[in-house]
Design goal:
heterotrimer, A alpha/beta (316), B mainly alpha (301), C mainly alpha (328), A: 316 residues, alpha/beta, 6-stranded mixed beta sheet, 10 helices, B: mainly alpha, MetI-like fold
Chain lengths: 316, 301, 328
Amino acid sequence: MTETLLELKGLEVTFTTRRGTLKAVDDLSLTVKRGEILGIVGESGAGKSMTGAAIIGLIDPPGRVSNGEIWFEQQRVDKNPESMRGRQVSMVFQDPLTSLNPLRTVGDQLVETILAHMDVTKAEALQRARDGLTEVGIDPDRINAYPHAFSGGMRQRVVIALALATEPQLVIADEPTTALDVSVQAQVLDLLKKLCRERGTSVILITHDMGVIAQTSDRIAVMYAGRLAEIGETREVLTNPQHPYTQGLMASTPSVDAKSFGQELFQIPGAMPKLDALPSGCAFNPRCSQAHARCQTDRPPILADRAACWLMENAS
Amino acid sequence: MRRFLNSDFFYAFTRSPLAIVSLLVVVLMVLSAILANFIAPTNPFDAASLNLMNGFTAPMEPNMFTGETFLLGTDDQGRDLFSAILFGLRVSLFVGVMAVGLAMVLGVLLGLIAGYLGGWLDTLIMRLADIQMTFPSILIAMLIFGVARGLLPAELREEMAITVLILSIGLSEWVTFARTVRGSTMVEKEKEYVSAARLIGLNPWQIMLRHILPNVLGPVLVIATITLALAIIAEATLSFLGVGAPRTEPSLGTLIRVGQDFLFSGEWWILLFPALTLLALALSVNLFGDWLRDTLNPRLR
Amino acid sequence: MLLIILRRLGQSFLVLFLVAFVSFMIFRYVGNPVDNLLGQEATNDRRDALIEALGLNDPLHVQYLSFVGRALQFDFGISYRTAQPVADMIIQRLPATLELALVSAIFAMFVGVVAGVYTAINRRGFIANSILSSSLIGVSLPTFLIGVLLIWVFSVELKWLPSFGRGDVVDLGFWTTGFLTVSGLKSLILPGITLGLYQMTLIMRLTRAEMLEVLRQDYIKFARARGLQDRTVYFGHALKNTLVPVITIAGLQLGSIVAFAIITETVFQWPGVGLMFINAVYFVDIPVMSAYLLLVGTLFVLINLIVDLLYLVIDPRLRDGQLKRTGG
């Protein structure tokens, strides 16, 4: 369980626009272990989706990976992401309604994916496709149905079957349940978790929903303004957050228990800065209640393997 | 005026060389068409001033009999081509502008009625528009032209040709106006100022013309510009086919029709210069219209 | 599904009915059929006899029904100008127009789709941008000018291709074809390009726009994320989705091609129905105009219908009646 599957070293994704260069992901380093579920949380625009796209090598121009390295199974892959895309690393997108080609049957799309990566005959691919559907809880006889014949939750199951069809070692799930009904979210999430655990597949789960993360992941990485704010074991981070941003995030997450009825939620003052107007030093310092002089000038590194915050300096 | 010069619109205009050049060409052509009488060296339709000896003079070369030189050469009858083009441009622009005016008035009125009053009138107008839209407008224009000719007594056909031409092109282009105006009217209708006008007891026509109309005019102007290019091309096409402007009042299309006959005998200029003029006119109106559309209303595509 | 088809058929009949009515009104009320057939000097007795024979005194709806009935039997009356039956004139000239339209349509569709896909895939390429800019000029250039310019270059200057007529045609009894002789094929090139060029630019721009739109879709991103080859993504996923609207529009353009053949046929003196129509407009030959309207109208309605039904076959969402198409 402790073997490293994926390692990001100082990853940087930039967008060149008319108004200058924006860093969507800034000096991000983290590892994903084999069989582990890593949750990446953050507000929209924090760079979490961009991180996922960078790993699989699908950043749309004018964005690009401008710095850093991506290592997968001890191989450097950022120069040729095609080598593992779809085969060893696959992806689940947010909206199952738009993720499937509406003009082709689900079986067709499954078989096509299997044939593209695995050395099997057409009949074997078809059998695998049927097995895949069965595994995600869909009647394999519906293999010739078109996507529109399925509900949103069922379609996301098809998407998961597609993502797992080639037996990848890593699945990047980008907000896989955000577009679904609340009642279906848990089912889909449990399914994804169960299938990946069975196969020992690692997952990067990208979401803004702390509940989803708490329920699913082994470790959490919190991102803020393109940077890693805090990383650690799920239980640790949730119960004992170190970065003031994570603390704010936890305090502003609603919990349903008797005590909290009628209580007002905590709000972090201000809003996440735009990428073209980042403050100097720590990106969070204008909103931080505990900021001091150094926070405004020097950018904190990850300290004590945990949080990018100068407050951690004494702790280490 | 100062407000206009400071507007975003004017700023966008100064930043687009394409828009400036195309507008310049259009303005230049409109001016020379209006002032054709003063600019043209000769009156090309005054038979007395024509000298058959000058026939087929090449551009910028002295005629071998009379020694006269013509900027763009002459046609078979010794008519100065530059003058003929100026007068032809006048006919083309006149027909184009009048036809668009007709299409605009008709389309805007029908669109307002359909959008504001709704009901069976709306259904009727929009069904008619749908059906007309399935046929190319040039075909509709030809048909109207043919029917109008059939209804007119033979001796009036030549005389009324320009009017008939305007009518047929105008009636073939109203649909776009009507559809757009109907759409915006239906949006405007729901706004408070219309309810207010209704409350103080204005009748539907007053509301439509005084209150809604000014608010839906923006896209109408864009469509008018784009339709102008279409109308100019339609007029040239009909005239080229011989079912448009008569030979006594030739437009650019008529001149090209005449020019085509002399292509094989080597008198290329009789074709080329009217063709280039038409091309420049249609292209610049088109480009300016496109720019206008993109600038004023990026969604109107 | 059946309901959609039935409703669609109903609409088509309504439009056909209207087109037939307009043709009828033109046939009956524009110009004076009696004067045109007998001349101004005919005696009153002969006039009355003809009016009776033509049923011109019957109530309007009776006249209309008999007009439709005769049209269904391919009887459109006698041309005022040539005194031939209009139906014979059409049958004689239709093959020329249809062959020309076919060549143009194939040219427009094939070149248009290929160029559209190319410019969409190589969005930033130099060649793609050159193709796009020149297509803008192509749109502003009136069809007849394109024809005249092509004649100038390829017939007058280079003398490669004929500038008018169909060349040698082979008479198959019911059909005359230019496909079987070299001169016939050569004669098709310039008019075919002239007629197809505008539609080609249209199809190209549409294909490009649709393809770019499709390439932005999530399922394309997902297809890439599944590691499918670019070729599979472009041609296996994007192209099919692109072609649905393209086929619709291109199909609708088929009617326009037949209508615009009027212009091309005049430029190239091509002996088809378009040239016949323009002569009819010029000489106020009402029965020919009316018959042409009826013919082209029917063609348009049929094409619209076929395209809509085809749409049902291609798009499974429509087939199951899930989506309602907006507009008619």
